[in-house]
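input
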Amino acid sequence: MRYRTPLLFVLVGAIWGTTFPAVRAAVDVVPPVLFAALRFDATALLILGYAAVRGYRVRPTRGEWASILAGGVFLIALHHALLFAGQQYVTSAVAAVVVATVPILTAALSRLLLPSTALGAVGVFGLGLGFLGTAIVANPDPAALYTAESLGVALIFAAAIAFALGAVLTQRTRTELPVASLQGWMMLAGAPVLHAASLSLGEPQSVDWTPAALLALVYLVPIAGGLGYLLYFDLLDRIGSVEINLVSYLLPVFAALVGWLALDEGLESTTIVGFLVVAVGFGLVKRRALARLLDL
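output
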Protein backbone atom coordinates (compact mmCIF):
# COMPACT_ATOMS: atom_id res chain seq x y z
CA MET A 1 0.00 0.00 0.00
CA ARG A 2 2.92 2.39 0.54
CA TYR A 3 3.47 2.39 -3.21
CA ARG A 4 -0.15 3.31 -3.95
CA THR A 5 0.40 7.08 -4.07
CA PRO A 6 3.45 7.07 -6.40
CA LEU A 7 1.79 4.50 -8.65
CA LEU A 8 -1.38 6.61 -8.89
CA PHE A 9 0.77 9.68 -9.57
CA VAL A 10 2.50 7.97 -12.51
CA LEU A 11 -0.82 6.60 -13.76
CA VAL A 12 -2.39 10.06 -13.85
CA GLY A 13 0.66 11.33 -15.74
CA ALA A 14 0.34 8.47 -18.23
CA ILE A 15 -3.42 8.94 -18.75
CA TRP A 16 -3.29 12.71 -19.13
CA GLY A 17 -0.03 12.68 -21.11
CA THR A 18 -1.67 10.37 -23.63
CA THR A 19 -4.49 12.88 -24.18
CA PHE A 20 -2.14 15.02 -26.29
CA PRO A 21 -1.65 12.45 -29.08
CA ALA A 22 -5.34 11.52 -28.78
CA VAL A 23 -6.36 15.13 -29.43
CA ARG A 24 -3.72 15.47 -32.14
CA ALA A 25 -5.19 12.49 -33.99
CA ALA A 26 -8.76 13.77 -33.65
CA VAL A 27 -8.29 17.40 -34.72
CA ASP A 28 -6.86 16.26 -38.04
CA VAL A 29 -10.38 15.25 -39.04
CA VAL A 30 -12.78 16.96 -36.56
CA PRO A 31 -13.07 20.76 -36.08
CA PRO A 32 -10.99 21.39 -32.95
CA VAL A 33 -13.32 23.66 -30.95
CA LEU A 34 -16.34 21.49 -31.74
CA PHE A 35 -14.38 18.43 -30.65
CA ALA A 36 -13.52 20.11 -27.35
CA ALA A 37 -17.21 20.99 -26.83
CA LEU A 38 -18.36 17.43 -27.50
CA ARG A 39 -15.76 16.08 -25.12
CA PHE A 40 -16.99 18.23 -22.24
CA ASP A 41 -20.67 17.63 -22.98
CA ALA A 42 -20.08 13.99 -22.12
CA THR A 43 -17.41 14.39 -19.43
CA ALA A 44 -19.52 16.89 -17.43
CA LEU A 45 -22.35 14.38 -17.10
CA LEU A 46 -19.87 11.66 -16.16
CA ILE A 47 -18.23 13.70 -13.38
CA LEU A 48 -21.51 15.04 -11.98
CA GLY A 49 -22.91 11.51 -12.02
CA TYR A 50 -19.90 10.33 -10.05
CA ALA A 51 -20.38 13.13 -7.52
CA ALA A 52 -24.05 12.22 -7.07
CA VAL A 53 -23.30 8.50 -6.65
CA ARG A 54 -20.66 9.28 -4.03
CA GLY A 55 -23.20 11.33 -2.09
CA TYR A 56 -21.40 14.65 -2.53
CA ARG A 57 -23.39 17.85 -2.52
CA VAL A 58 -24.06 18.51 -6.20
CA ARG A 59 -26.40 21.50 -6.19
CA PRO A 60 -24.43 24.78 -5.97
CA THR A 61 -25.56 27.74 -3.94
CA ARG A 62 -25.99 31.20 -5.45
CA GLY A 63 -22.61 32.31 -4.11
CA GLU A 64 -20.81 29.39 -5.75
CA TRP A 65 -21.67 30.33 -9.31
CA ALA A 66 -18.83 32.88 -9.53
CA SER A 67 -16.28 30.09 -9.13
CA ILE A 68 -18.16 27.80 -11.52
CA LEU A 69 -18.40 30.45 -14.25
CA ALA A 70 -14.77 31.54 -13.86
CA GLY A 71 -13.64 27.93 -14.22
CA GLY A 72 -16.08 27.20 -17.01
CA VAL A 73 -14.99 30.16 -19.13
CA PHE A 74 -11.22 30.07 -18.52
CA LEU A 75 -10.28 26.53 -17.39
CA ILE A 76 -12.64 24.69 -19.71
CA ALA A 77 -13.74 26.84 -22.65
CA LEU A 78 -10.91 29.26 -23.43
CA HIS A 79 -8.10 26.91 -22.41
CA HIS A 80 -9.33 23.96 -24.45
CA ALA A 81 -10.43 25.98 -27.47
CA LEU A 82 -6.91 27.41 -27.78
CA LEU A 83 -5.23 24.11 -26.87
CA PHE A 84 -7.14 22.00 -29.37
CA ALA A 85 -6.69 24.62 -32.10
CA GLY A 86 -2.96 24.82 -31.44
CA GLN A 87 -2.52 21.06 -31.51
CA GLN A 88 -3.31 21.05 -35.21
CA TYR A 89 0.15 22.49 -35.85
CA VAL A 90 2.54 20.93 -33.32
CA THR A 91 3.52 17.49 -32.07
CA SER A 92 2.11 16.02 -28.89
CA ALA A 93 5.41 16.49 -27.05
CA VAL A 94 5.66 20.18 -27.94
CA ALA A 95 2.07 20.78 -26.77
CA ALA A 96 2.69 18.99 -23.46
CA VAL A 97 5.90 20.94 -22.76
CA VAL A 98 4.19 24.29 -23.35
CA VAL A 99 1.28 23.25 -21.11
CA ALA A 100 3.86 22.42 -18.42
CA THR A 101 4.31 26.18 -17.93
CA VAL A 102 0.87 26.34 -16.26
CA PRO A 103 2.15 25.99 -12.66
CA ILE A 104 4.72 28.75 -13.28
CA LEU A 105 2.16 31.07 -14.85
CA THR A 106 -0.30 30.32 -12.03
CA ALA A 107 2.29 31.41 -9.46
CA ALA A 108 2.94 34.64 -11.39
CA LEU A 109 -0.75 35.50 -11.72
CA SER A 110 -1.31 34.63 -8.06
CA ARG A 111 1.27 37.26 -7.19
CA LEU A 112 -0.70 39.86 -9.17
CA LEU A 113 -4.22 38.87 -8.12
CA LEU A 114 -3.75 37.38 -4.66
CA PRO A 115 -1.97 39.98 -2.47
CA SER A 116 -0.88 37.41 0.12
CA THR A 117 1.18 35.52 -2.47
CA ALA A 118 4.83 36.54 -2.87
CA LEU A 119 7.03 35.55 -5.81
CA GLY A 120 10.41 37.11 -4.95
CA ALA A 121 13.49 37.67 -7.08
CA VAL A 122 14.28 33.97 -7.45
CA GLY A 123 10.66 33.27 -8.38
CA VAL A 124 10.74 36.00 -11.02
CA PHE A 125 13.88 34.40 -12.46
CA GLY A 126 12.06 31.06 -12.51
CA LEU A 127 9.15 32.69 -14.33
CA GLY A 128 11.63 34.02 -16.89
CA LEU A 129 12.97 30.50 -17.39
CA GLY A 130 9.43 29.34 -18.08
CA PHE A 131 9.11 31.89 -20.90
CA LEU A 132 12.60 31.01 -22.16
CA GLY A 133 11.79 27.30 -22.21
CA THR A 134 8.67 27.98 -24.26
CA ALA A 135 10.70 30.07 -26.71
CA ILE A 136 13.23 27.25 -27.06
CA VAL A 137 10.44 24.77 -27.79
CA ALA A 138 8.96 27.13 -30.39
CA ASN A 139 12.43 27.48 -31.97
CA PRO A 140 11.33 30.41 -34.16
CA ASP A 141 13.20 31.05 -37.37
CA PRO A 142 13.64 34.84 -37.87
CA ALA A 143 13.46 34.30 -41.61
CA ALA A 144 10.14 32.48 -41.31
CA LEU A 145 8.66 33.63 -38.03
CA TYR A 146 5.01 33.11 -38.92
CA THR A 147 5.14 29.37 -39.49
CA ALA A 148 2.34 26.96 -38.63
CA GLU A 149 4.38 25.54 -35.74
CA SER A 150 5.02 29.00 -34.28
CA LEU A 151 1.28 29.69 -34.48
CA GLY A 152 0.58 26.39 -32.72
CA VAL A 153 2.99 27.17 -29.88
CA ALA A 154 1.52 30.67 -29.51
CA LEU A 155 -2.03 29.29 -29.30
CA ILE A 156 -1.06 26.66 -26.72
CA PHE A 157 0.88 29.18 -24.64
CA ALA A 158 -2.23 31.39 -24.67
CA ALA A 159 -4.17 28.30 -23.54
CA ALA A 160 -1.73 27.89 -20.63
CA ILE A 161 -2.25 31.54 -19.64
CA ALA A 162 -6.04 31.06 -19.76
CA PHE A 163 -5.78 27.99 -17.54
CA ALA A 164 -3.52 29.76 -15.04
CA LEU A 165 -5.87 32.75 -14.89
CA GLY A 166 -8.84 30.46 -14.37
CA ALA A 167 -7.03 28.62 -11.58
CA VAL A 168 -6.32 31.87 -9.74
CA LEU A 169 -9.84 33.22 -10.22
CA THR A 170 -11.42 30.01 -8.94
CA GLN A 171 -9.06 30.10 -5.96
CA ARG A 172 -10.24 33.62 -5.15
CA THR A 173 -13.87 32.53 -5.30
CA ARG A 174 -13.49 28.99 -3.91
CA THR A 175 -16.35 27.75 -1.74
CA GLU A 176 -17.22 24.52 0.09
CA LEU A 177 -18.63 22.84 -3.03
CA PRO A 178 -16.88 19.43 -3.33
CA VAL A 179 -14.12 19.32 -5.95
CA ALA A 180 -15.85 16.72 -8.12
CA SER A 181 -19.10 18.71 -8.17
CA LEU A 182 -17.22 21.91 -8.91
CA GLN A 183 -15.31 20.32 -11.81
CA GLY A 184 -18.51 18.84 -13.26
CA TRP A 185 -20.37 22.15 -13.15
CA MET A 186 -17.38 23.96 -14.68
CA MET A 187 -17.47 21.52 -17.59
CA LEU A 188 -21.22 21.90 -17.94
CA ALA A 189 -20.81 25.70 -17.99
CA GLY A 190 -17.84 25.64 -20.36
CA ALA A 191 -19.27 23.26 -22.99
CA PRO A 192 -21.96 25.71 -24.29
CA VAL A 193 -19.30 28.42 -24.54
CA LEU A 194 -17.23 26.06 -26.69
CA HIS A 195 -20.25 25.27 -28.88
CA ALA A 196 -20.91 29.01 -29.34
CA ALA A 197 -17.25 29.61 -30.19
CA SER A 198 -17.32 26.76 -32.71
CA LEU A 199 -20.36 28.29 -34.44
CA SER A 200 -18.87 31.79 -34.43
CA LEU A 201 -15.67 30.48 -36.01
CA GLY A 202 -17.68 28.93 -38.80
CA GLU A 203 -16.64 25.37 -38.04
CA PRO A 204 -18.70 22.65 -39.75
CA GLN A 205 -21.15 21.18 -37.25
CA SER A 206 -21.33 17.76 -38.87
CA VAL A 207 -18.61 15.33 -37.84
CA ASP A 208 -17.18 12.56 -39.97
CA TRP A 209 -16.44 10.07 -37.22
CA THR A 210 -13.43 8.25 -38.54
CA PRO A 211 -12.14 5.34 -36.42
CA ALA A 212 -9.26 7.51 -35.15
CA ALA A 213 -11.55 10.37 -34.09
CA LEU A 214 -14.05 8.05 -32.44
CA LEU A 215 -11.30 6.22 -30.57
CA ALA A 216 -9.88 9.56 -29.40
CA LEU A 217 -13.29 10.66 -28.04
CA VAL A 218 -13.81 7.34 -26.27
CA TYR A 219 -10.38 7.69 -24.68
CA LEU A 220 -10.84 11.34 -23.69
CA VAL A 221 -14.26 10.93 -22.05
CA PRO A 222 -14.41 7.77 -19.90
CA ILE A 223 -10.66 7.20 -19.49
CA ALA A 224 -8.99 10.63 -19.38
CA GLY A 225 -12.12 12.48 -18.27
CA GLY A 226 -13.60 9.82 -16.00
CA LEU A 227 -10.81 7.64 -14.62
CA GLY A 228 -8.21 10.39 -14.90
CA TYR A 229 -10.23 12.84 -12.80
CA LEU A 230 -11.16 10.16 -10.25
CA LEU A 231 -7.48 9.42 -9.70
CA TYR A 232 -6.74 13.15 -9.60
CA PHE A 233 -9.33 13.74 -6.87
CA ASP A 234 -7.88 10.83 -4.88
CA LEU A 235 -4.34 12.22 -5.18
CA LEU A 236 -5.49 15.74 -4.36
CA ASP A 237 -6.81 14.49 -1.05
CA ARG A 238 -3.63 12.47 -0.41
CA ILE A 239 -0.82 14.87 -1.33
CA GLY A 240 -2.31 18.35 -1.81
CA SER A 241 -2.43 20.89 -4.63
CA VAL A 242 1.28 21.80 -4.72
CA GLU A 243 2.48 18.25 -5.12
CA ILE A 244 -0.18 17.34 -7.69
CA ASN A 245 1.20 20.14 -9.90
CA LEU A 246 4.30 17.99 -10.36
CA VAL A 247 2.27 15.67 -12.57
CA SER A 248 2.60 18.34 -15.30
CA TYR A 249 6.19 17.26 -15.72
CA LEU A 250 5.28 13.65 -16.47
CA LEU A 251 2.92 14.65 -19.29
CA PRO A 252 5.58 15.49 -21.92
CA VAL A 253 7.29 12.14 -21.33
CA PHE A 254 4.16 10.11 -22.06
CA ALA A 255 2.99 12.50 -24.79
CA ALA A 256 6.32 12.11 -26.62
CA LEU A 257 6.37 8.33 -26.20
CA VAL A 258 2.79 7.71 -27.35
CA GLY A 259 3.08 10.34 -30.11
CA TRP A 260 6.14 8.51 -31.44
CA LEU A 261 4.57 5.04 -31.19
CA ALA A 262 1.07 5.86 -32.43
CA LEU A 263 1.53 8.88 -34.72
CA ASP A 264 5.16 8.50 -35.80
CA GLU A 265 5.96 11.94 -34.39
CA GLY A 266 9.59 12.97 -34.08
CA LEU A 267 11.21 14.54 -31.01
CA GLU A 268 13.36 17.60 -31.59
CA SER A 269 16.33 18.38 -29.36
CA THR A 270 14.86 21.86 -28.77
CA THR A 271 11.77 20.23 -27.25
CA ILE A 272 13.91 18.32 -24.75
CA VAL A 273 16.03 21.36 -23.85
CA GLY A 274 12.95 23.57 -23.53
CA PHE A 275 11.30 21.04 -21.24
CA LEU A 276 14.35 20.95 -18.96
CA VAL A 277 14.45 24.76 -18.79
CA VAL A 278 10.72 24.90 -17.93
CA ALA A 279 11.22 22.23 -15.23
CA VAL A 280 14.07 24.23 -13.65
CA GLY A 281 11.88 27.34 -13.73
CA PHE A 282 9.12 25.46 -11.92
CA GLY A 283 11.65 24.28 -9.33
CA LEU A 284 12.68 27.86 -8.62
CA VAL A 285 9.14 29.21 -8.44
CA LYS A 286 7.97 26.38 -6.15
CA ARG A 287 11.28 25.87 -4.30
CA ARG A 288 9.82 26.36 -0.80
CA ALA A 289 6.93 23.97 -1.37
CA LEU A 290 9.29 21.41 -2.90
CA ALA A 291 11.66 21.76 0.05
CA ARG A 292 8.78 21.07 2.46
CA LEU A 293 7.79 18.08 0.34
CA LEU A 294 11.34 16.66 0.46
CA ASP A 295 11.44 17.09 4.23
CA LEU A 296 8.43 14.83 4.45
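quick obs: The chain is about 75% helix and 0% strand.
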